[in-house]
Design goal:
Strand order of the largest sheet: 3-4-5-2-1-6-7-10-11
Structural class: alpha/beta
CATH architecture of the largest domain: 3-Layer(aba) Sandwich
Number of strands: 17
Strand content: 15-25%
Helix content: 25-40%
Mean pLDDT: 96
């Protein structure tokens, strides 16, 4: 099968969050199963060019219709760790992708509307006719709209679209200018509740809603989160749209890249280990302590790795630091804040705790350091308010760090409570789960984890080993996506 992935990220060359990891990991799994996979990405000025091999011009004169004119683009081609990627570079005074960052501009909607238009124009002009176009999140929500309303009438009538939503919070609410820019000129037609009109703002179109309405299949990144999106406020206003299109909506759990995240062969950790040589993990804890100037003592190491924002339960992250220290544990945090207020709060905490020999807060993100923290940590904290899938808990288990998670989204689908899970045997349990979003619930789960480490180390090691032996690779998820592709090809 010939599959084209269109996305705003692909790790490690373009990564702002888990989306990049998913796009890369799924693409590799699909190729390993004998499919032809190509990726179309924006050519940002700030992406990691050192992860691209053989970058060259592949298509010099791509003219993309835009308003009443056209924007000239060059399409570059290169290999990102074995994946064939096409990068679209527009030559325009708008500098759509020359901003020094990936997201966060007032014209983000227009930037990615252009990218969606340019990606389809590239497929059409270069005579690429994939069986399936797989697009991701609001940034590419216009692709199925444009395909159905315009490009199917210009030689692309057999292409089918799978649309994956990684985060319902960001939906791309836009004004009428998006329609006129992309050639979808009939305002009355698109400002219809059954098409692109936002469910709560009659004066806005919603790019994510367009993706849901026009795609052949829509999924989010875990079965439980699919339920949450339909029946709770986690759908951020799109629950009714998902209800209307429930026959083509589901949840497929993300996989984890088991080659990139592999403690037996990780180039970023000093001591390799497996589930059968877990004693080597302690040497990585010692190495992290030396690097971060932490005291070398007989304490469990608790870690948080991720964005510092409301989604990640930032109030619980802060509380977990002090509760871990109160319980006689060490704490390491690696993360960057998405809002100035949260950033200021954690800089204050960093300064306050700067001389504590059992705590280190690393504000920012460092991919290499994250590997060492996973390899050193005994316990990994994921107290999210909502979590569509979550990779942190999967990576933690892969590295023998026992997860303590809030029971939402994909966390429920991957972490099974050591004490209370009624649906899994003791041999299948792999962590600790709490459900409320208050301090007492977090403390209860953390206390159970820390006490098991202190007072029943053999059981804690068994729990860590069971997490390492669980299979959260792309194997099953890749099979599920291929099932979707075959289903929509036959429609």
């Amino acid at each position: 099968m010939y599959i084209v992935q269109i996305a705003s990220e692909c790790a490690p060359v373009i990564k702002a969050g888990g989306l990049g990891d998913v796009v890369y990991g799924l693409s590799r799994e699909l190729e390993n199963r004998g499919n032809t996979v190509e990726l179309i990405l924006p050519m940002y000025d700030c992406m990691r060019y050192d992860h691209i091999w053989g970058l060259h011009e592949a298509y010099q004169d791509l003219w993309v219709p835009w308003y009443d004119a056209a924007i000239h683009c060059t399409v570059f081609c290169g290999w990102v760790h074995g994946r064939l990627c096409f990068f679209i570079e527009p030559h325009s005074q708008d500098n759509f992708f020359h901003r020094g960052h990936y997201y966060g501009d007032k014209d983000d909607n227009m930037r990615f509307a252009f990218f969606s238009k340019a990606a389809l124009e590239f497929l059409q002009q270069s005579n690429k006719r994939p069986d399936v176009i797989h697009c991701h999140d609001w940034q590419t929500g216009l692709i199925p709209v444009l395909l159905y309303e315009i490009y199917q009438h210009h030689g692309m009538g057999t292409q089918r679209v799978c649309y994956t939503i990684h985060n319902f919070k960001h939906q791309g609410q836009s004004g009428v200018d998006i329609l006129w820019a992309t050639g979808l000129n009939n305002e009355a037609y698109y400002f219809d509740y059954d098409r692109l009109q936002d469910n709560f703002n009659p004066f806005a179109i919603n790019l994510m809603k367009g993706g849901i309405v026009y795609s052949n299949y829509v999924n989010t990144v875990s079965p439980h989160h699919a339920w949450e999106a339909r029946f709770t406020d986690i759908g951020y206003g799109l629950g009714h749209t998902l209800e209307i299109h429930q026959n083509k909506f589901g949840g497929i759990l993300n996989g984890l890249d088991y080659e990139m995240w592999n403690p037996a062969a990780d180039p970023y950790i000093p001591h390799a280990y497996t589930a059968d040589s877990l004693e080597e993990k302690a040497k990585n804890k010692q190495a992290l302590r030396e690097r971060l100037l932490l005291q070398d003592n007989d304490r469990p190491l608790v870690a948080f790795i991720g964005r510092l924002d409301d989604q990640k339960g930032v109030h619980l992250v802060r509380h977990s630091i002090y509760y871990a220290l109160h319980k006689g544990a060490q704490f390491v945090l690696l993360g960057s804040a998405t809002e100035p207020g949260i950033n200021a709060q954690f800089w204050h905490e960093k300064q306050y705790l700067n001389d504590n020999p059992n705590c280190h807060l690393e504000l920012g993100y460092n991919e290499e350091l994250s590997h060492l923290i996973y390899a050193a940590a005994d316990i990994i904290i994921v107290p999210s308010n909502y979590e569509p899938c979550g990779l942190t808990q999967m990576i933690g288990m892969r590295y023998g760090a026992v997860p303590v998670v809030r029971g939402v989204g994909g966390l429920v689908s991957t972490v099974f409570d050591w004490d209370y899970d009624p649906d899994h045997s003791e041999e299948e349990r792999n962590g600790f789960v709490f459900y409320q979003s208050d301090y007492r619930a977090l403390e209860s789960a953390m206390e159970r984890a820390i006490d098991l480490w202190k007072y029943a180390p053999e059981k804690f090691e068994m729990l860590a080993t069971q997490g390492m032996k669980a299979d959260y690779s792309w194997k099953q998820s890749g099979e599920n996506y291929l099932g979707v592709y075959e289903y929509i090809r036959c429609k």
